[in-house]
Amino acid sequence: MRTHKGWHRVGATLLIAGAGFLALLLLLSRRAEAGVQVLSQTTLADFSAGEFLRTGLAGMGDGAVSLLRAGLSGEWITTVVTAGLVPRWGHAAVYTNGRIYVIGGLHDATVGSALTRSIVQSATVLGDHNLTPWVTVTTNLTGIFPQGTAYGGAAQVGSFLYVIGGRRAPNPDFGVAQRQVAYARVNPDGSLSPFTEAVSLPVGLESMATVAWAGWIYVLGGIDENLQVTDTIYVARPDPTTGAITGWTRLTWTLPYPLWRHAAVAEQGYLYVIGGMTGTNNVESPPLYEVWFAPLGDGTLLGPFTRTEPLDNNLVELAAIGYNGLLLTSGGLQSNLSDVSRDVRAGALADSGAVITWTATSLITPPRSAHAMVVLPDGWVYVIGGRGLQGTDSIPLTHINAGRLSAEGAGLFLSSGRYLAPPFHLDRRRLLLTLDLQFLRPPGIDAAVRIRSQAQDGFPWSDWSPWTPLTGTGEVTLSIPLNFYVQSLQL
After folding, report:
1. Which of 104, 195, 225, 287 has the smallest number of CB atoms closer than 10 Å to its CB?
2. Collapsed DSSP state (helix, strand, coil) of residue 295
3. Domain-wise residue ranges, the chain
4. Is residue 180 within 8 Å of residue 211, measured between CB atoms?
5. 112: closest CA among 57, 62, 167, 184?
């Protein structure tokens, strides 16, 4: 379903005739009488099972699908619980199973193992999206990362949390890159199993970017143990049952150039690389504005990186997430490393993967770099910790900002979006005569629908039909005449 401006709520009424042996008897004996089966998707729970592109859920009545706002749907909440959180920067964070986990980082540039005693902490996300006080996870990484880790990677794949590489020396610019990889199972109660060492990276890396997509982990660029900035991409597919990683593969595809202190996001089947630096000297290789994207495959890329709409300032040590066809960046060192940023930018993605435009949205408080950012399935975003600057001194932060990417609140709507509903399943294969779409449509909305069908469970899906415009406003029913056998239908 495609929509422009605003929101809609849709149910489907299927006019069907019986199929199979019984229908043949009826047709042979007398004219078959058509029956009506009503299937509906109107609640937030119904809609949340679908797929969103530049759209999201809105709590209008029992539920609705709407275009997303171009950025945060209000101001950041700065009163989120931070009690117990050790101040830190250069850390990683993941969200899984109702909790946010913060891993590694530095809290004192003069201490060699700054966070060894509290390397992993977690907090539970409450119903109002505040957090419980932070606790230090009892199963720690000291056996695998005895000097701690900062500026490394973390990823959640299935039921497992992975911690990858990072520096062990606390030099504010770069340290000694590590190769170790550790993983732990995330239990239903939020606790972690003891960390186990996986197969190491082929080379030590820090200040790289790490993303998880479709069961794979991608490690992009970084500075290696020889202090060389790299353009390499390593991938691994953890065992979904045991969590074990048995090896890393270096892709033949590379980044557009050697890169470190950048951000990366996997979103809508594309891999995005944002900002960063190509060298260790910001005079000879200044920070970058550029944004690149490439199509993702099964543990690979399906093509080279393509440059897309750049940022409006050069950034390193920024954070970024993706959500329903939006990219969101926050903070970072900007203006050739001279200033710490408060800026938050939202990038709307085209179907082709390109960034359509970047929009400034609500500012974070305080300015920061080398922080972490996570997004929850419901669009809530948390910006955690980071490094502030006082003169040339690094100030570790505990500050957390929380806000929502949403169809509700303030701000302009994105210009267009798409929603893929979960399939409607009939009790058995039937002859479909008419599809009645019932929807609620306020004035000023352009919307269209297309359908595809599955004749029987296990059969291939048909091609998508052409788009049919939805006309009228208020409570509207659109009748589409059909004449084919189906067991499942998707809009």
Report:
1. 225
2. strand
3. 2-68+415-490, 92-404
4. no
5. 167
